[in-house]
Amino acid sequence: MTSAAAATAARPTPASARLPSLTGLRWIAALLVFGFHAGTMRIIAEPDYKAVVDALFTLGLSGVQFFFILSGFVLVWSARVGDSRRTFWRRRVAKIYPNHLVLWGAALLVAWWFADPVLPAVALENLLLLQAWDPRPGWFYSINTVSWSLSCEFFFYLCLPLALPLLRRARPKLLWVLIVALPLLILALWPAQHLVPEASRWWFTQIFPPVRSLEFWMGAVAAELMRRGLWRGPGLTAASVIFLATWVAAAEWIRAELWTTLLAVAYLLVITAAADADVRGKRSPWRSRPVVWLGEVSFAFYLVHVLVMTSVLRWSGDWGTGFQGWRGPVAVLGFLLVNLVLAGLLHRFVETPMMRRLAPRRPALQVAVPQQRTASIEVNGREDRTADGVGTQAQAGEAAVGDVEQASGRSTYVDSR
Questions:
Q1: Which pTM value belongs to this model?
Q2: Which parts of the chain span the membrane according to its record (predicted)?
Q3: How far apart, in Å, are the Cα atoms of 159 and each of 162, 213, 399, 409?
């Protein structure tokens, strides 16, 4: 093989590549969010045990950053020429709305069971995924609290087809400027929050869709650079070490306004390194079948976990007090398993079949890829279940808060959110 041919083979093959490692990594992000909520809900009453959970998951809420960055990365990576805006938007709605609707209804049933008052306007706002735009306390976290992130994702989905032609035409220098500028803008949000009323500052920095879109666009720009073969970043091992060092330092010594930026950068490095490992056939611990399956169900897991835990704690009378002694850690493990089972059922019987039924079919467009199995990738936020080495665009899928597609009769699952 000539050096030119080798260079061509080494370059990523956009849209035809599947990225199973990104699906596997989604589970780690979902687990971080679960651990954070398990700690803040005070499920564990024993101080020593709780301290361990707090030490491990104190920054777990940043897992949502990972979802947003991954969403931007996979959707740009897997975007194909010829897809209309309407097709894109329909596919995204088909991917995330059925799960959302089921959990919305379940949350209303729980509210009825506990005789919790629910304003019709709040229920409607959540049903339409508009709650992230509402700064009123108790509104953006209402009904199924975690669905605020879907409200943000809907905004990202609306914007991407409008911005993608500009991204495709952007010069490399501009893309690199954006990669540097976007994390700095995230950092600048902390002094900027003083421009809004104090009661709305958490909403402004953590919920407001245009603000959270900065993370989405980080992933989108990085994907465009990698799509062109221009991305330069550390390998998966080095990126993982950088992330772990950043996590430890942020948890122990770094103020919140700085660690949010640093972790966003660390997540981006891990995502791009994992994608590159899949493209080039390098080793990745996130590509195994069990880990990929966990990544597939991570979207459903994310949607069910808070509702399940709060409902059980209220029913048992342990809300706000937690479980004493060894019962606390056992309860957390039990919640993890129960949520995983429910997520698997939701993924199997709602998410996948509804995506097949509602999403428009993509024509099977064959794309040339290197003969080596190493060039196969799985594009996902969740995954493509076809596991042999050569992929097609139809198999590539997409990802955002998750995507399931049918390609050649197989289930292509990609996630992002």
A1: 0.84
A2: 25-44, 56-77, 97-115, 146-167, 174-191, 260-279, 291-310, 330-350
A3: 5, 10, 15, 30
Report CA-CA distances (Å) from 237 to 212, 249, 269. Answer: 28, 18, 11
In a domain, 115, yes or no: yes
**H/E run at residue 98:** helix 85-113
Mode of pairing for the β-strands spanning 403-407 and 410-414: antiparallel
State the total domains in the chain: 1
Residue 59 covered by a domain: yes
**Looking at the domain assignment, is residue 364 inside a domain?**
yes
In a domain, 224, yes or no: yes
Tokens of 274: 């994992």
Q: Measured between alpha carbons, how far is 91 from 396 in angstroms, rounded to an integer?
A: 14
Positions of E strands within 71-177: none
* Domain region containing 159: 18-414
Instruction: Render each residue's pLDDT in the chain as its tens digit; 417 residues.
Output: 444 444 444 444 444 468 999 999 999 999 999 999 999 998 999 999 999 998 899 899 999 999 999 999 999 999 888 788 999 999 999 999 999 999 999 999 999 999 999 999 999 999 999 999 999 988 999 999 999 999 999 999 999 999 999 999 999 999 999 999 999 999 999 888 888 999 999 999 999 999 999 999 999 999 999 999 999 999 999 999 999 999 999 888 877 778 889 999 999 999 999 999 999 999 999 999 999 999 999 999 999 999 999 999 999 998 888 898 999 999 999 999 999 999 999 999 999 999 999 888 765 544 444 443 333 333 333 333 333 332 333 333 333 333 333 333 333 333 444
